[in-house]
Design a protein that fits this description.
7-stranded mixed sheet, 165 residues, elongated, 3-stranded antiparallel sheet, 2 helices
Length: 165
């Protein structure tokens, strides 16, 4: 059995953002930030003509705008049932379990369609976005991809998805 994979993790595929996580019960951590790093690993057959799984440049071109959209932003999960996010003019109001919590300029917010801004959920979001972009590129030999979101050195969340899922 043969198996190939390639991985891309570059300094410019990182971003600095603020976030907070809601926990079980009635706990919400304080707003804080991380210097995130993203790595994308792709598995599949090699192209018979080019002899690679996927061009590194294609991965970088797809991932870079995704991380730039989160860079120097406050990450807010739009699917968190404990939060109410409400835009008023150019302000994003954040309520936690019915109590006012934060107010941010809309231009400083990245709304993500996830339930919490954990490394795992950010990795899942990015994996789905990358998979969609690969399909739009017409990349047919790919079997799976994995996204790693490192929020600090030695502390990462991962999400792996098949290309046919």
């Amino acid at each position: 059995m043969r198996g190939f994979k390639v991985s891309v993790s570059k300094d410019y595929l990182g971003f600095s953002s603020a976030h907070f996580i809601t926990f079980s019960g009635h706990q919400c951590e304080s707003l804080h930030g991380h210097n995130y790093r993203i790595a994308v690993t792709v598995e599949g057959d090699v192209d018979p003509e080019c002899a690679f799984v996927v061009d590194f440049g294609v991965i970088k071109r797809i991932v870079r705008p995704l991380v730039q959209a989160m860079d120097h932003k406050v990450l807010l999960p739009s699917k968190n049932t404990k939060l109410v996010l409400r835009q008023e003019d150019q302000r994003m109001m954040v309520e936690y379990l019915g109590a006012a919590r934060f107010v941010f300029p809309v231009s400083n917010v990245a709304l993500l369609p996830i339930s919490n801004t954990t490394a795992e959920m950010i990795a899942e979001y990015l994996a789905h976005e990358v998979r969609l972009a690969f399909k739009e590129e017409g990349l047919r030999r790919l079997e799976a991809l994995e996204v790693e979101v490192e929020e600090s050195f030695g502390q990462s969340g991962y999400f792996r998805i098949g290309m046919g899922d």
